[in-house]
């Protein structure tokens, strides 16, 4: 017996697409309608037999292991091979009425406090649920689906046509039963035979501490029930964190802008600020400059995985008064003189440190 791979002219590790292309090319060259020579016809039969084996993954595995190229005593004809080329091959047989449902997605808003410490939320979701009238069967009065008389339960119909390479058999889903192989003669009036209906249900969602916008919580089996009462898909709850009035989040770090007067910055003070844990004192050291920061450890957002919390960074902004009365001007002028400051005097700084280092990261 000739080696099937040699007959088709392909390597033993060739994939199915390469094998299919090789057979298609040889079939067009050797088909009796194109070349009626008896020797060529024998070659055509040999090529067809080789593809009957190598074109079927299960038969190919058996052949590679040294087994028979025939399964269960059944030979597959030329029409079956051409099915694979023209859409008839692949998923044979009736398709099941019961299929898995789709996943569902819903978005919920949480504030910064809920995102940091976690919360439990009751949400209302409208989705496909199993029909309580027929319990998912789609049939009224507990009557079972009946075999389709058109396709005789196969779920598909076949049609034979002729082409330049011979007879071509194509298979299509049965139009009478839509490929199920059975017909529901008396559909459930509640779900119209689908086995499911649309309904609104309340679901409790546990939001873990540390979530942020874009995170999704997967709730297995809480999505859409499948057709025919099939298993439900999953429900994904996507988090949208709403902005806080004072605090800005960056990962697990919180930022807070704190404005103080220039006298408070010069003399130093203690100011109470609002945090997620309530009011907290922040110590401003004497001589604090604008854009200085005060780090408060462990008062940021909870780490989503691993526990612990980030930090709170307080950004100090020194406010210079824009309007002064005469008395205030005189006091400031006297203060400047007492420090030996002269009007119009400035202190230009080198760019290798200080302000420019902070501004440009140098």
Low-confidence parts lasting 5 or more residues at pLDDT below 50? 68-91
Mean pLDDT, to the nearest integer, reads: 85
The CATH topology of the largest domain comes to: HSP40/DNAj peptide-binding domain
CATH class of the largest domain: Mainly Beta
Number of strands: 15
Strand arrangement within the widest β-sheet reads 10-11-15-14
Give the SSE layout.
Layout: H1 4-8, H2 16-30, H3 38-54, H4 57-64, H5 78-86, E1 104-110, H6 112-117, E2 119-130, E3 146-147, E4 156-163, E5 166-173, E6 182-183, E7 196-207, E8 216-219, E9 235-241, E10 247-250, E11 253-261, H7 262-267, E12 269-275, E13 278-284, E14 293-296, E15 312-319, H8 326-338, H9 355-360
Parallel strand pairs: 1-9, 11-15
Antiparallel strand pairs: 2-7, 3-6, 4-5, 8-9, 10-11, 12-13, 14-15
Helix pairs in contact: 2-3
Pfam families: DnaJ, DnaJ_C, DnaJ_CXXCXGXG
GO biological process, one term: protein refolding
GO molecular function: ATP binding; heat shock protein binding; unfolded protein binding; zinc ion binding
Give an overview of the whole structure.
One of its GO terms (molecular function) is ATP binding. Residues 118-200 form the CR-type domain. Residues 3-67 form the J domain. Keywords: Chaperone, Cytoplasm, DNA replication, Metal-binding, Repeat, Stress response, Zinc, Zinc-finger. The protein has helices at residues 4-8, 16-30, 38-54, 57-64, 78-86, 112-117, 262-267, 326-338, 355-360, and strands at 104-110, 119-130, 146-147, 156-163, 166-173, 182-183, 196-207, 216-219, 235-241, 247-250, 253-261, 269-275, 278-284, 293-296, 312-319. It is elongated. It is of the alpha+beta class. Helices cover 23% and strands 28% of the residues. The protein folds into three domains: 4-76, Orthogonal Bundle (Helix Hairpins), CATH 1.10.287.110; 95-243, Sandwich (HSP40/DNAj peptide-binding domain), CATH 2.60.260; 247-339, HSP40/DNAj peptide-binding domain, CATH 2.60.260. Residues 68-91 have low confidence and may be disordered. The strands form six sheets. The protein has a four-stranded mixed β-sheet. Strands 1-9-8 form a three-stranded mixed β-sheet.
